[in-house]
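Format notes (please read before filing issues)

Several people have asked whether sequences and structure tokens are stored in separate files. They are not. Every record keeps both together, in the order shown below: the sequence lines, then the token lines. Line labels are part of the format and must not be stripped during preprocessing.
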Amino acid sequence: MMNDELTIAEHNSSFIIHHSTFFDSHAHLDQEEFDADRAAVIARAREAGVETIVCPAVSVASAETVVRLAEEHELWAAVGIHPNYTAEAAPDDWDRIVELAGNPRVVAIGETGLDRYRDYSPLRLQQEYFDRHLQLARSRDLPVIIHCRDAREDMLPMLRAAAAEGPLVGVLHAFSGTADFAAECLSLGLHVGFAGNVTYSNRKNDYLRDVAREIPEDRLLIETDSPYLVPQPFRGREKRNEPAHVVQTATFLAELRGVSVEQLAAATTANARRLFRLPVEQK
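Then the structure lines:
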């Protein structure tokens, strides 16, 4: 076992309780995996020190739900149409996204981006919707939450074009790309978010840990991408990820980067609050 993995692997409890506060910058709490115990999941997160959560949408129905959940549970929402759902979007769905973007609990546009891993939507349609999201984020002065899977070469020209109007404001969520891709996205203004996949113990993942070591502290975010990407040591034991587990990813990243959990928690929470423009004391 690599030293990078010791901290997270040696914890046997389901949740690590710290005095620090954490910010889960990406959790799909609207999904059906949470229908039976959503309030309990949110309560567990808060007990674990997760002070708040951003819930991104993947469709119009999802956007309406995350806004409602944000209002009911003092969370935050992002509205958009995931690239894999663009082929299912009705003609008036985009107008509803634009409308929902004005809700006071909405702090970002997304989840948007490009995905060549799954063949759910034609690339040209994904690109059209990605451009719409980038323009909406710019016009509303909101950050954008970006999904990129096996689509780096297609995405970079679009990001460069968007950055010609000024630095990009947003985050590449659940990052799984190369160091060069991360470096260019940072140069364009973006933050980089890491989820439970950075903790996976396999040689193919070494490159991702190398990237995670080098992201500047003031551009680093943490997330769960719940219900996906369950971190070690729960992978294989739990089918569903949840926001309390962001503490595991933070603990892993802190040891990987050679800093205390408290320092990493404080930095990533401050980064998320700054990116999403949330006052320190606001819930």
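For reference, the curators noted about this record: The first strand starts at residue 22 and ends at 24. The beta strands are 22-24, 50-56, 76-79, 106-115, 144-149, 170-172, 191-194, 220-222.
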